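Memo to structure team: turn this sequence into structure tokens by end of day. - J.P.
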Amino acid sequence: MFVYQNPDPVALAIGPLHVRWYGLMYLVGFAAAWWLARRRAARPGSTWTPLDVDDLIFYLALGVILGGRLGWMFFYGTERLLADPASVVRIWEGGMSFHGGLIGVIVALVVFASRRGRSIVDVFDFTAPLPAIGFGAGRIGNFINGELWGKPTDVPWAVVVDGVPLHASQLYEAFLEGLVLFVIMWWFTAKPRARWAPSGLFLVCYGVFRFAVEFVRVPDENRGYLLLGWVTMGQLLSLPMIIAGLWMLAAAYRRGQPSGNYA
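Reply from structure team:
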């Protein structure tokens, strides 16, 4: 066990300007996604250009930020929104939902695909391996902020917070949704796969990882357990991802359509 040291959430302060670690983690995620996408676009036979990648990341950033914030307000922070509508723009105070961000990204990618005349499925598949590093960085940001702790535990790797040993559920998610998910997706998409397969695998892996970590994560105070005394909002939102991902994988290998991301 080790004791949580309450690190300063502000990474850099210049006068009234405060740059927070959580915000920097978003920059790390977007920069990593851009670099990885550029690498994939440069491969022989790729139908993507560097300009395509630059525009794609712009659309992704809008989808993540707008969808993540609005999703958190809708799924978890309705009371705060009703009491203080202006809080929707104060992202630096915390409150971003992955599932809301996913919806925002889907909308952004649909708009991108339609404007570029690309298959929506191909755009989804190209994007599938890109966000995992950002997920991991964001969870590390949660750890630095001292939020989203897990349940009390006596495991030897627990983190002692205010004298109570807790599961560091943020770090569990950083490992599973960040490192493990990235390794799986980057390996799987290293060669052309059937259309829908990368997107389906992404949904299954993320949904399973998130569903599992929710067993040791403390649910939001204003939501608690929603079913059977143990089902959380995160699990309810992850279950459709798993089902949809399994359907997409089955459809991908049944149809065997080639990806449009390679000539």
